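If you are new to this repository, start here. Below is one unmodified record pulled from the training split, so you can see the exact layout before writing a loader.
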Amino acid sequence: MLELKKVKTAYGQSQVLFGVDLQVNDGEVVTLLGRNGMGKTTTIHSIMGLVKARSGEIIFDGNHVREWPAYRVARAGMGLVPEGRQIFPNLSVVENLVATASNRLKNQHPWTLERVFELFPRLPDRSQNMGNQLSGGEQQMLAIGRALMTNPKLLILDEATEGLAPLIRMEIWECLKGLKSSGQSILVVDKNIEALTRFADRHYIIEKGRVVWTGDSKLLSTNKEIQHRYLGV
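And here is the target side for that same chain:
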């Protein structure tokens, strides 16, 4: 579904990505891991067209999208839950969800308000609250729901549970497990290795703009040396 080949990205004269290779297959949950400042968000932004990769290939659903503007990438079927959530603070929960709702790809079972509220039972009681009246966890649930309302082929989460309480993190992980069981393809950035290895299929570790390790959950969970070298604080 998604493939990156030798992707290089820079901000002005400062190069951040040095030939990133990454692949997400249909129905997979894949993670992008690494310490802060190693290029994870830049990789996500390159995929989404929010920053233009200078070279390499980004192929999504058979289309070469590296030169596409962000709105066209989104319309092709990528839904982003950005770092920091970035919900609309002065819109209600319902307004946030319907503001970007679409079914351009003609999903036979599209996401609706009812489906999002079923996925996140905390949100119905907050349906008329403004975005800035929600807790951090509720805002993250709303951000995921907003992305799902675009009916994406690939859901991308940048820092899925950063800054959230442990109980809320568990709810987010259960949500992602449920989405995976329904066949949703997911690319997720997060730091919670223990939770991710319980349901993700494969993992990529990035260090200074290069992929330095890739493997499945069993390999990552048992390889403490790799965890310490590239993910430890």
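Two things worth knowing about this chain: The domain at 2-230 is CATH 3.40.50.300 (Rossmann fold). The chain has a mean pLDDT of 95.
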